[in-house]
Amino acid sequence: SVVLLAGAGLLVRTLMKLQVVDTGVNVAHVLSMEIPMDGTGRSAAEQLNVYEAMRRKVASLPGVVEVGLGNTVPLLGIDHFRHEVKVESRPLSPGEAPPKADVRTASPEYFRAAGIPLIKGREFAGTDRRGAARVVVINQTLAKRLFGDTDPIGQRVAWNSDEMRFLPISADWRTVVGVVGDTRDFGPDAAPPPVMFMPFAQEVYMGAMIIRTGAEPTALASSVVQAIRTVDRQAIIEKVQTLEQVREDRVAPRRVNTLLVTLFGGLALAIAGVGIAGVLAFSVSLRTGEIGIRMSLGADPLRMKRMVLGEGWILLGGGLLLGISGALVAGRLLS
Question: Of residues 308 and 181, which shows the higher confidence score?
Answer without folding.
Answer: 181
